[in-house]
Amino acid sequence: HPLTGLPLEDTLALVRYEAELQGLHDLVAATDAELTAIHQATGGNPLAVKLVIGQTHTFPLGAVLQQLEQMAGQPTENLLTFMHHAAWEALPTNCCQVAQALTLVPASGGELEQLAAAAALSAGETADCLARLAQYSLIIVRGDLQTRRYALHPLTRHFILQQSASALAALD
After folding, report:
1. Closest-CA residue to 32 (of 6, 58, 11)
2. Chain centroid to CA 16: how far?
3. Model confidence pLDDT, tens digit, residues 83-109
4. 120: left (phi > 0), else alpha (psi -120 to 50), else beta?
5. How many CB atoms lie within 10 A of CB 1?
6. 17, 30, 115, 159: most buried by Cβ count inside 10 Å?
7. Which of 166, 2, 170 lies closest to 84, judged by CA?
8. β-pair partners for 139
């Protein structure tokens, strides 16, 4: 059955909460009217809302929303694929390696050292990439004060596996 989005008030609360967590002060201070555009563009889909917020680290909100207008009327899966693609294109190569390494860990996630080894990167580079992936809302961070585990949202995992398959097919 189709996914239903959040009501407008809940979308506005989610945007402000996520923006506060990510230090996006302009977004936190935006008017309800400005943030309503996010709700309208995403249909209130929480993952799409988070992906839009993540994109505002790099792109102005108007540009992100303009890109989303191109997807108007498309199924939710197409919207999420479009949003993942935009985030993927903005990532440096080493962060794409970390994202691909995340496809190798269980749904419960992997630890920094595991991901660094799988991505063939230093722990510092991997940590920087995990921070960026979290900013773009591409990963789920779990754990407590002593241990953190990183995992992909199932739709993000699907997108990255598709990207990897496309890249391999292009080599043939």
Report:
1. 11
2. 16
3. 778 788 889 999 999 999 999 999 899
4. left
5. 3
6. 115
7. 166
8. 152
Evaluate whether 91 touches 163 at the Cβ level (below 8 Å): no
pLDDT tens, position by position, 32-62: 999 999 999 888 989 889 889 988 888 899 9
Query: Tokens standing for 103?
Result: 């496809």
Decide: pTM greater than 0.85.
Answer: no
Instruction: Compute CA 167 distance to the chain's CA centroid, rounded to the nearest angstrom.
Output: 20
Q: What are 141's strand-pairing partners? A: 150
Q: Tokens standing for 122? A: 């230093």
Beta strands per DSSP E along the chain:
139-143, 148-152
Give the separation between CA 142 and CA 170, rounded to whole angstroms: 35
What is residue 107's DSSP assignment?
T
Percent of the chain with pLDDT over 70: 98
Alpha-carbon gap, residue 128 to 126, rounded angstroms? 5
Could you tell me what percent of the chain has a pLDDT over 90? 52
If you search the block for the tokens 């992906």, which residue do you land on? 51
Q: Which two tokens stand for residue 72?
A: 């108007």
Closest CA to 82 of 135, 14, 159: 159
| pLDDT beyond 50 at 1 | no
3-state helix, strand, coil in the chain (%, to 5): 65, 5, 30
Q: Which residue shows structure tokens 């063939």?
A: 120
